[in-house]
């Protein structure tokens, strides 16, 4: 591979024999993948490189271990049921409300405390949306925001319990709420995936998952590793909750729950990395994929609510 003008060239850590065999295999058969080989090599891949080409994009997945804590972990407490709302864009509110519920439970120092779910519907109804999406079959409107914005609204305005403002999903007409509301103390904290996997032994954390339609075809216990040869369709970055980690035949797997989508939960490989490069003839429809231009894990942008700093 030629050195780029004006740039130092380094492959970083040594790569395995499997990687070199793959490079030799694609040298003539898949020339398009060379556009992203530099990123792959810099990551120090272990094995399992796969490349995919569509009309608009070239991308690859591969395995890289060793970076994260490699042990099974899950909280002692189950933290209640995670609301499901399959066909709507409401995951941001459902997960924000669950993080608030977890934060209030963890902050409670009483001996016989109980877990209380707080209202995702309240966030759906009153947080100013960043985007609105009309569902043609029901004429309802999905008000799309973010987990962080939902938490911020609750911090500034308090939040009712779920039993006082129950989940009804997307709706266009909202009555005023005059019942009891509860304060939320703490701050939204972005976490690296490594830090998030350490937190899992205490409580679930939120994350974004790069979701391809291939996930719909998996059996219950199969591991999600991104796209497959048969299904390359990219859905987008979906809000999920990471509930535990497992080791499956030396592969680190995160068990995540999806509030929206075809499946309630997925076993996601933490060892798989992903990268893509839009092709030269890419058009506007492919712009939504360009945020994957750098190598990343399938899970990213992890988040939790941490208690406020102690005052002296």
Main sheet characteristics:
7 strands, mixed
Strand portion: 25-35%
CATH architecture call of the domain at 91-189: Alpha-Beta Complex
Q: What's the SSE pattern?
A: HHEEHHEEHEHEEEEEEEE
Kindly, what is the distance between the CA atoms of the first and last residues, rounded to a whole number of angstroms? 58 Å
What is the average of the pLDDT values? 81
Individual helix count: 6
Helix content: 10-25%
The neighbouring-strand order within the major sheet is 5-13-6-8-9-10-7
**pLDDT < 50 stretches:** 1-12, 282-292
Count the E strands: 13
Reported by name, the CATH topology of the domain at 91-189 is: Cathepsin B, Chain A
Shape: globular
The CATH homologous superfamily name of the domain at 91-189 equals Cysteine proteinases
What is the name of the CATH class of the domain at 91-189? Alpha Beta
What can you see in these coordinates?
The chain has 312 residues and is α+β, with helices and mostly antiparallel strands. The protein has a domain at 91-189: Cathepsin B, Chain A (Alpha-Beta Complex). It has six helices and 13 strands. The protein has helices at 17-29, 37-42, 91-107, 120-126, 147-157, 193-199; strands at 47-53, 57-63, 131-134, 141-144, 187-191, 205-212, 223-224, 234-248, 251-257, 265-269, 272-278, 296-297, 299-306. The strands form three sheets. A seven-stranded mixed sheet has the order 5-13-6-8-9-10-7. A four-stranded antiparallel sheet has the order 1-2-11-12, covered by helices on one side. Residues 1-12 and 282-292 have low confidence and may be disordered.
């Amino acid at each position: 591979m030629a050195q780029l003008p004006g740039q130092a060239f380094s492959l970083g850590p040594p790569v395995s024999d499997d990687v070199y065999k793959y490079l030799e295999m694609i040298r003539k058969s898949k020339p398009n993948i060379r556009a992203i080989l530099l990123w792959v090599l810099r990551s120090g891949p272990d094995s399992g490189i796969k490349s995919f080409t569509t009309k608009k994009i070239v991308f690859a997945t591969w395995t890289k271990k060793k970076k994260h804590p490699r042990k099974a972990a899950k909280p002692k407490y189950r933290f209640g049921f995670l609301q499901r709302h399959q066909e709507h864009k409401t995951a941001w509110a459902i997960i924000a409300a669950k993080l608030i519920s977890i934060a209030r439970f963890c902050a409670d120092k009483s001996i016989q405390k109980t877990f209380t779910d707080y209202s995702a519907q309240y966030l759906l109804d009153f947080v100013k949306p960043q985007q609105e999406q009309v569902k043609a079959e029901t004429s309802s409107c999905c008000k799309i925001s973010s987990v962080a914005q939902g938490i911020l609204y609750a911090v500034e305005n308090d939040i009712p319990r779920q039993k006082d403002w129950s989940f009804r999903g997307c709706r266009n007409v909202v009555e005023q709420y005059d019942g009891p509301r509860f304060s939320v103390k703490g701050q939204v904290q972005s976490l690296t995936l490594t830090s998030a996997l350490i937190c899992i032994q205490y409580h679930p954390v939120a994350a974004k998952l790069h979701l391809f339609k291939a996930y719909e075809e998996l059996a219950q216990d199969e591991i999600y590793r991104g796209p497959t040869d048969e299904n390359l369709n990219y859905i987008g970055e979906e809000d999920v909750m990471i509930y535990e980690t497992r080791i499956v035949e030396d592969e680190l797997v995160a068990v995540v729950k999806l509030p929206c989508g075809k499946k309630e939960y997925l076993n996601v490989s933490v060892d798989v990395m992903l990268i893509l490069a839009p092709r030269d003839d890419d058009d506007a429809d492919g712009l939504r994929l360009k945020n994957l231009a750098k190598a990343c894990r399938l899970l990213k942008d992890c988040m939790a609510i941490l208690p406020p700093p102690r005052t002296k």
